[in-house]
Amino acid sequence: MSLYKTFETERLILKPTTTEDAAFVLELLNTPKWLKYIGDRKVHTLSEAKLYIETKMLPQLKRLGFANYTVIRKTNQEKIGSCGLYDREGVEGVDIGFAFLPQYEKQGYAFEAAGKVKNMAFNNFGLTEIYAITTKENSSSQKLLEKLGLKFKKVTNIPGDDEDLLLYKLKNK
């Protein structure tokens, strides 16, 4: 996957997610907050995690040159979270998303990674605006989006899901 660029911040490495990250993806997709705020992706085995990466992440990476990034802590090379830009069906524009293992929350990693991904969207991938969606109950995600400069736009839904979601937007200056 060296065809796609890896990015760095002061404390983090953001590398495009590949099937080599399947064990990490399996763990992340089954954390309590992922299940509560993002939803059950029905990924319960290593082979299902590999298939999820192959069918949900890699096609967008190949099509657009960006997708999901595995966030790795530089100090110990530990995979701690996920952050990326997603071209989701039924969602206006390209949206930014993030999720971290519980033990790495509230340490500034999500802000650091999402800030880098926001800059990548505008400076590396030529996007003129980015969006984000979150549940009404996920106040920590809302606060992070606002800290990144995104502004609440409206309540929306994803096709096939009647849950109301909050849509945020940021235009590149």
TrEMBL record:
<protein>
    <submittedName>
        <fullName>GNAT family N-acetyltransferase</fullName>
    </submittedName>
</protein>
<dbReference type="InterPro" id="IPR016181">
    <property type="entry name" value="Acyl_CoA_acyltransferase"/>
</dbReference>
<dbReference type="GO" id="GO:0016747">
    <property type="term" value="F:acyltransferase activity, transferring groups other than amino-acyl groups"/>
</dbReference>
<feature type="domain" description="N-acetyltransferase">
    <location>
        <begin position="12"/>
        <end position="173"/>
    </location>
</feature>
<dbReference type="InterPro" id="IPR051531">
    <property type="entry name" value="N-acetyltransferase"/>
</dbReference>
<dbReference type="InterPro" id="IPR000182">
    <property type="entry name" value="GNAT_dom"/>
</dbReference>
<dbReference type="Pfam" id="PF13302">
    <property type="entry name" value="Acetyltransf_3"/>
</dbReference>
